[in-house]
Write a structure and sequence with these properties.
The protein is mainly alpha-helical. It has one domain (3-420): Alpha/alpha barrel (Glycosyltransferase), CATH 1.50.10. 49% of the residues lie in helices and 5% in strands. The protein has 17 helices and nine strands. The longest helix has 25 residues, at 120-144. The structure holds alpha-D-glucopyranose (GLC). Alpha-D-glucopyranose (GLC) binds at residues 25, 30, 34, 36-37, 162, 164.
Length: 426
């Protein structure tokens, strides 16, 4: 496939999944708007339709809650093909949404789209309107998800991480009960191979948490402390820190001084606190199980994605080394879990497969830190995966088997973004 053909295919995927003011990740399996999917997909749109890129992020931010939270799914239109739908979440919103959030990558996306905008007037106007909302979301994180002021925020549901069934959560997840879960029928396994998806046991716990939060009226002043699942994920925090940094830079440029100063503070505090998650032994960052105050010794990509934040140079160098070590254990970077670890599963969702969005953000961070060899290897592997297996949701890191849903929006967006922006991909 030539570069032009690849971009043409990718644009086709985006336009097929475009619902006018938002995109669905893929038809069938995910028929609504997902939070971080939208922010990252906007990057793809911005190369050929800047107004449409802005609309994607505006639609997402239009559903922000009063407390600042931006939900992980917006159920724009009813669809029976998805579980758990609005009736399970019961958040009582006019346009229904879930009551949990997802990695806050919108700040990064806005800055990136503005930086290279052809229509600079439009970009400045759009960014000016979006920044206060994104900033309020960031502040919500540190208020609601870091009540002790540690500098790092916790997720309270695995779906918030975006890495739904990562091995990282296994032990902490055992603390989530399965009793009193209302009977339900999964829909995901009708759209994708059950072998590629989370197990039924995991689904019961996902739903237990939803029921618990719903019983607390989705009151974010109570959810953090009430959740038996509270994990500090380095990848998630890195995305938040990077977005705070990008908002700070943009706000300074646009004369929004208070937002700039507050964002800079949040980023600085976050970066300093990330050090508490570093493991010399594993050569990467680790998750912290906040409920028991212990690091989780699980070699997953969450601790490598931390390269997306402005971490110290020596940490970025160590992560680059970690990536190159992983390259010896599989054919395609970056496996979501270390292939040498006992729980690695090359096909099952976030327990082994490669995800292009994680690759993109990790490569972006490593490149910024001057770790070009590792960054280049990651980008090359993304393009090889697309050539071999098309725009899948995720891929087996050993065989390149396409997994999960097909014709996937953010995989396509990442290809457009990498081919257009990354010198390494030229
Ligand atoms: C899955 C992924 C999540 C993504 C969603 C929509 O749930 O784990 O990260 O946002 O699908 O693509």
């Amino acid at each position: 496939m030539t570069r032009e053909e690849m971009i043409r295919h990718a644009r086709q995927v985006l336009s097929d999944n475009d619902r006018g003011t938002y995109t669905v990740p893929t038809k069938g399996l995910y028929p609504f708007q997902w939070n971080w999917d939208s922010a990252l997909s906007a990057l793809g749109f911005s190369h050929f339709d800047e107004p449409r890129a802005w609309t994607e992020i505006e639609t997402l931010m239009a559903h922000q809650w009063d407390d600042g939270m931006v939900p992980h799914i917006i159920f724009h239109q009813p669809d029976d093909g998805y579980f758990p739908g609005p009736e399970v979440w019961g958040t009582g919103r006019e346009v229904p949404t879930t009551g949990i959030t997802q990695p806050p990558v919108a700040g990064f996306a806005v800055r990136r789209i503005l930086d290279r905008a052809r229509d600079t007037g439009l970009a400045a106007e759009k960014a000016k309107a979006l920044l206060p909302k994104i900033h309020a979301w960031h502040q919500w994180f540190y208020r609601a998800r870091d009540p002790q002021g540690t500098g790092l925020v916790a997720i309270i549901h695995p779906w918030e991480s975006g890495r739904d069934n990562s091995v990282d959560w296994d032990d902490a997840f055992k603390r989530v009960p399965t009793e009193d879960v209302q009977p339900f029928t999964r829909r995901d396994t009708a759209h994708a191979n059950p072998e590629h998806r989370p197990t039924d046991e995991q689904y019961k716990r996902y739903i237990w948490l939803v029921q618990k939060f719903r019983s607390l009226d989705w009151d974010n002043t109570r959810l953090h402390d009430a959740s038996p699942f509270r994990i500090v994920d380095p990848g998630f925090n890195a995305i938040l820190i990077r977005s705070c940094q990008d908002v700070a830079d943009l706000a300074a440029r646009l004369g929004m001084d208070q937002i700039a100063a507050e964002s800079r503070d949040m980023a600085d505090i976050g970066i300093a606190a990330m050090e508490t998650l570093w493991s010399d032994r594993m050569g990467q960052y680790l998750c912290l199980d906040r409920s028991i105050g212990q690091l989780i010794e699980s070699p997953s990509v969450g601790g490598i994605l931390a390269a997306f934040a402005p971490i110290p140079k020596d940490r970025a160098a160590a992560l680059a080394q970690r990536v190159m070590t992983l390259a010896k254990t599989c054919e395609y970077l970056i496996p979501s879990h270390d292939p040498g670890a006992p729980d690695f599963d090359s096909l099952r969702y976030w327990r082994g497969p490669v995800w292009l969005i994680v690759n993109f953000m990790t490569a972006n961070g490593l490149e910024r830190a001057g770790e070009t060899v590792a960054a280049e290897r990651i980008v090359t592997d993304c393009l090889r995966l697309i050539e071999t297996s098309g725009f899948a949701e995720y891929y087996d890191p050993i065989t390149a088997e396409p997994c999960g849903g097909a014709h996937f929006t953010w995989s396509a967006a990442m290809v457009i973004e990498s081919l257009n922006t990354c010198e390494l991909a030229a």
